[in-house]
Amino acid sequence: MQEFADLVIINAEVHTMDPSDPGSLTDSVAVRNGLVAALGREDVDAMTGPGTVTVDAAGGAVIPGINDAHLHFVSAAMASYGYVRLDAAAAPDWSAVVKVIESAPVGADGWIRAHGWDEVALGPAVGQLLESRPGTPVVAFDQTGHQLLANHEAMQLAGVTAATADVDGGVVVRGRDGNPTGLFQDGAMELISRALPPVPEETLRPALLRLQEHLHSLGITSLTDPGLGPASAGLMDGAGSTAALGLLGDLAGEDLLTLRINVLMLFAGTGGATAHAVEEGLGSGLADAYSARGIDPRQLRIAGVKVFADGIPRSGTAWMTEPYGKACTHGRLVIQGGTDAERVAELHRILRLIDTAGLQAGIHATGDAATGAAVEAILAAGNRAGGARHYVIHGSFSDSGVLSTMADHGIGYSTNPLIRSEAGDIMRTVLGEERFTRHQPLRSALHAGVQFNLASDAPVTSPDWRRTIVAAVRRGTASTPGDPADPERITGLQALASMTGKAAWQDHAEHFKGSLLPGMAADLCLLSRPWPEDEEIEALLHSGTRLTVAGGRIVHQSTSSDTGSEQFSSSSNRS
Question: What share of the chain in percent tops pLDDT 70?
């Protein structure tokens, strides 16, 4: 009996992203039972029957579903749909920020929670909200996830006073009189976040589902949420709690989760990580939270543990081999310990615990010294002959030697070109021109053979992967278009591979997703236009997503005028 396809896409520019033939193109693809069933018009026609849904791509590109390997799904959902918005559109200067806060509704828990302010656009944040909304606690998280502002009432509820001690791996910004100004950086954010009531499910659930819908509209079918669990108060907005981790499991159990999600657990926040905290977390059984419920690991799985090795350059908390910034600091590891040697040794103990547990470590390291220390810790842990696929998040490199070591030992690299683009002007000031030029050495990583991927880090930047691709190809900033001779540029298709197959490698999943080959998962998206040449890569920004398919299921269908007529039909109306 002839087995017909459920869905076929014809007259397309199908980029299979075959790892053995990266430039492979065909014109049609067939989907059956959630898998890619055939490629090429002749084989696809043979699988097209009376009940087959046929889509005429009209020359548009078909690509594997985008896999954002570093997207804070829970935090991004709350930033987009749960908090008062403080982005540039809503509040272009500090006076506008204050006005938004003054008119914001008080939440059911008695707090005002806001998100999105950015010092790059607004200027110094010290004390800006300290006197706002007397009688109502206010907390406002910044765009980077590494700073927050609190008013007097919030600090009072959190018990923060002039006598509050500084935090290991964080900064309580103080005035000349020693009193906190309301600005808390990195590990010090926990002082305020721990006082926040948990986000109620009736707020978080619809926010997650709305963001899922939006991500599908962009063509995203997979992501890694890097940091959910008991130390959530020390990361981003603190919304990624153990309860949020459980809610994702509920959505999967109710067949409402159509994104494929990998989770990194968080047992210590952005400052003061210890082996003891990680050991306790690993012993809690949290790593088995989904498998114990019988959830398909291809849909939702706990992959490993997020570890913060250092902070970020803007805060002076990145660990660099050479001094940087106005304070002329080297920064340091934010791992607990009294000296650099003690902190490095503690990082080694943390990595050994994660590796021994059979889990993957994603290590946040933004300074070159921190990146080197992270790689050394992975090697010392054993890395199970590269099978663990531990990886460095963000990453900065003093030379190509570390990249070669990473390639030789199967250590991954996940980085964020759109952050470099949007914050590049201030990063250039902080790091200096020479170091900034070498920041995110994409082509060097490619040539070294490192398994690297590009990701958004949303809500730090937009989850729109097209903008990430353009940033990787152009390597410009807000004030500069990018140097055509920049040796670290990569091509658009190389960038696409890093957001499909290379991201699937990080997930230990390249055997079932990340390329459009027969037998692979039917995770794909249809763009309204062909894939652009690198010289015109900005045209990608004008290419809408006509159709997104996840596991063979249509999860997004566009009615945008850019897509033209959708031409969904039965086989009898095929062109």
Answer: 96
Helix, strand, coil shares, percent, the chain, to 5: 35, 20, 45
Domain boundaries of the chain, sorted by first residue = 7-65+516-573, 76-193
The two tokens of residue 273 are 């990580």
50 torsion bin: left (phi>0), alpha (psi -120 to 50), beta (else): alpha
Out of 2.140.10.10, 3.30.870.10, 3.40.50.620, 3.10.310.70, the CATH code matching 76-193 is 3.10.310.70
What's the CA gap between 531 and 547, in Å, rounded?
A: 15
Taking 90 as the threshold, does the pLDDT of residue 386 lie above it? no
Share of the chain above pLDDT 90, in %: 81
Q: What is the mean pLDDT of residues 326-350?
A: 95
Beta strand ranges found along 118-232 (DSSP E): 138-142, 147-150, 170-174, 180-186, 220-228
Alpha-carbon span 518 to 499, nearest angstrom: 20
Look up the CATH number of domain 7-65+516-573: 2.30.40.10
| pLDDT single digits (tens) 167-213 | 877 889 999 999 999 999 888 888 998 898 888 899 999 999 999 99
Residue with structure tokens 């249809």?
526
Q: How many residues does the chain have?
A: 575
pTM equals: 0.92
Hey, what are 219's tokens? Answer: 């063509």
Q: Provide the H-helix boundaries in 433-555.
A: 433-438, 442-448, 465-474, 492-498, 501-506
d(CA 336, CA 530): 51
| Ordered DSSP codes for 379-402 | HHH-GGGGTT--EEEE---SSTHH
| β pairing state of 412-415 and 391-394 | parallel
**Cα 59 to Cα 38, 55, 550, 556, distances in angstroms:** 18, 11, 21, 19
φ and ψ of 7, to 5 deg: -145, 140
**How many CB atoms sit inside 10 A of residue 361's CB?**
29
